[in-house]
Design a protein that fits this description.
This protein is mostly helical. Helix content is about 90%, strand content about 0%. It has one domain.
Length: about 60
Amino acid sequence: MINYLKFRYKSYIIIFSGFLIGAILSKIFFTDPDNLMVITCFLGGFLIGECVMINKWIKNHKTNG
């Protein structure tokens, strides 16, 4: 768990890029997005960032352990 948290600390860029993807998608698809749509897109971007980060952590954990 400690290794995961250390890796997570180093991977906030991936999570932030997920948020950025969500913001861009909400701006592209919706000219005047309401608050619920923006939150939904941010959460979608967060989910993408988390999935990428966890996938990298699993690959790293398999090679090290």
